Amino acid sequence: MKQHRLRLTPTEARLIYSKRKPNGNFKPEKQGIPKILVLDIETAPMVVYVWGLYKQRISPESVKDDWFVLCYAAKWLFDSKVMSDMITPKEAIAKNDQNVINSIWLLLDKADIVITHNGTNFDHRKLNARFIYYGLARPSHYQIIDSLKSTRKQFAFSSHKQGYINKFLKLPQKLHTDYQMWIDCINGNAKRLKEMLKYCKQDTRGLEELYLTIRAWIDNHPNLPLYTDFEGDMCPNCMSTNIKKGGYYYTPTGKYETFRCECGAFGKSRKAEKRKISSKVC
């Protein structure tokens, strides 16, 4: 079955909100629940002229063909459907990723939170470069959860590549690939482009499982209850109300009641308890 592809003009993509949907079945989120997107992209390598392999400083004038986005895969957290888009063989040869970029823009514009691995330094900056290249407006604000930053902070894994961590933790692993696949893709090989998209989709599924595994360890995790009108106690990482209170968290200025969630995350009350100030002078 032929896969539906988005065709947007820059003017259409500049809209603050669009009801058009990327590939896959988009399941509208319930009101008051944050829309959390898991995202991965694959980019083409640059083609440059060089005089050697070691200690080379490559000037911009040496670039023959710049990088561009080959494909992306994304899914709303806990949704079984993986949304995706890739360039056609004709677009690959022309180095034209505009349709794929428009498709990604629509998803990011809907998202409240985006989960990536090394997304802070790679995925998001790469995408922003393509957005501004095509004259697209900045997507609506979203928070970033970068699993690479979290694993580097909390764990001494031998490697922090997603493939290594997923294998170490027995999570869904990356599909086997080789450098030749990227070369075949930029040369417009339709079969290898489909393989690249399959590889990207598997990375997205694996990233979701990695995020859920380390979620309780993410200290700077976005405070999800802020997206709701719920006034009771709720886990800031997963929004569960199945929490157990016990103990206190102390700061130089306050004392907070703490709790542990069923997901393993710790939390504390929003307001500090009033402290009794002794009138005794030492």
Count every beta strand, where a strand is a DSSP E run of 2 or more residues: 10
H/E element sequence: HEEEEEHHEHEHHHHEEE
Kindly identify the CATH topology of the largest domain: Nucleotidyltransferase, domain 5
Low-confidence stretches: 1-31
The largest beta-sheet arranges its strands as 5-4-1-6-7
CATH class of the largest domain: Alpha Beta
Structural class: alpha+beta
Gyration radius from CA atoms, angstroms: 22 Å
Strand proportion:
15-25%
Count of helix runs: 8
From the N-terminal CA to the C-terminal CA, the straight-line distance is 82 Å
Say which CATH homologous superfamily of the largest domain is assigned.
Answer: Ribonuclease H-like superfamily/Ribonuclease H
Provide mean pLDDT, rounded. 85
Principal-axes shape call: elongated
The main β sheet shows up as: 5 strands, mixed
Q: Domains counted in the coordinates: how many?
A: 2
Task: Work out the helicity level.
Answer: 25-40%
- CATH-level-2 architecture of the largest domain: 2-Layer Sandwich
Could you walk me through the main structural features you see in this protein, from its secondary elements to its overall organization?
The strands form 3 sheets. Strands 5-4-1-6-7 form a 5-stranded mixed sheet, sandwiched between helices. The chain contains 8 helices and 10 strands. It starts with 9 loop residues before the first helix and ends in a 14-residue tail after the last strand. The chain folds into 2 domains: 10-217, Ribonuclease H-like superfamily/Ribonuclease H (Nucleotidyltransferase, domain 5, 2-Layer Sandwich), CATH 3.30.420.10; 226-268, no CATH class. Strand 6, helix 4 (119-133) and strand 7 form a beta-alpha-beta unit. By secondary structure, it is α+β, with helices and mostly antiparallel strands. The protein has helices spanning 10-13, 89-94, 98-110, 119-133, 147-154, 162-168, 179-186, 190-214, and strands spanning 36-43, 47-48, 63-65, 69-76, 83-86, 113-116, 143-146, 243-250, 255-261, 266-268.
